[in-house]
Automatic annotation (TrEMBL):
Family: Belongs to the HAD-like hydrolase superfamily.
Protein name: HAD family hydrolase
Organism phylogeny: Bacteria, Bacillati, Actinomycetota, Actinomycetes, Actinomycetales
Pfam families per the UniProt record, alphabetical: Hydrolase_6, Hydrolase_like
Cofactor(s) the record lists: Mg(2+)
Length: 274
């Protein structure tokens, strides 16, 4: 697919890259073809990059180790999760405040790192993330805190996630339940909210005009990149097929069969696709 915006000659070179994780770099705990070569090429050229995921369960260190077991070496400081983005967002909105948190180590570690106090007594925020075991008592307490005036934040809008046994409810579906009980809608920080993208760019000192986003989903990755002002590259190794692209009111800058196809774009080119 040809680039859809300015002519290549009018575009500045891409000097920073953001990449989704699942469906782009890994699939079912295995590195996808070209993924390690793409990461290696970025590191060899000293190009700033981040690997993004809406998963808020794991810490960056945990995810780096999990990726290594999949055959992909990604340093923990080059991983950006919805938990990281949520912590950065809250630190900017209300520094060193307090939150009642439903989530696992990825979220609590990020919030502690941002200077937040975890409390179940009169917090400023209720923060909902993913967990393997949602507690009815914790959800009930969250509902009552929100009814009492706590602000409602959720790490991401994903409604389900995979497991070996089948589909699991995820943050978005639990948030919908809390919203139904309280009448208060959450603010979702993760993709497709461009807040997550912009916060990630700040981490690596990059600007949207010279950054690119690689993803496998039109509804989250490409949408977030478009709304943040990045050049978006869709790879066909994950959720979105070529036939589905035309269903959306926005388009990626370019489409590729897989992440390995983008290695040729790392040497100062504006970036075209097939």
């Amino acid at each position: 697919m040809e680039p859809t915006s300015l002519a290549l000659a009018e575009l500045p070179p891409v000097t920073a890259w953001l990449s989704d994780m699942d469906g782009v770099l890994v699939h079912e705990n295995r590195a996808l073809p070209g993924a390690q070569e793409f990461i290696d090429a970025l590191r060899e050229r000293e190009i700033p990059f981040l690997v993004l995921t809406n998963n808020s369960i794991f810490t960056n260190r945990d995810l780096s180790a999990r990726l290594a077991r999949s055959g992909l070496e990604v340093p923990e400081d080059r991983i950006w999760t919805s938990a990281n983005a949520t912590a950065a967002f809250l630190a900017q909105q209300s520094p060193e405040s307090s939150a009642f948190v439903i989530g696992e180590a990825g979220l609590t570690t990020a919030l502690h790192g941002a200077g937040y106090i975890m409390t179940d007594q009169d917090p400023e925020y209720v923060v909902l993330g993913e967990t393997r075991n949602y507690s009815f008592n914790a959800l009930t307490h969250a509902i009552r805190l929100i009814e009492g005036g706590a602000k409602f934040i959720a790490t991401n809008p994903d409604v389900s996630g995979p497991s070996d046994e089948g589909t699991l409810p995820a943050t978005g579906s639990i948030a919908a339940m809390i919203q139904a009980a309280t009448g208060r809608a959450p603010y979702f920080v993760g993709k497709p909210n461009p807040v997550m993208i912009r916060a990630g760019l700040n981490v690596i000192g990059a600007h949207s005009t010279t950054a690119a986003m690689v993803g496998d989903r039109m509804d989250t990755d490409v949408r977030a990149g478009v709304e943040a002002g990045l050049r978006t590259h869709l790879v066909l190794t994950g959720s979105t097929s070529r036939e589905q692209i035309g269903r959306y009111p926005f388009r990626p800058f370019a489409v590729h069969e897989g992440i390995g196809d983008l290695i040729a774009l790392l040497d100062g080119q504006a970036g075209a696709g097939d």
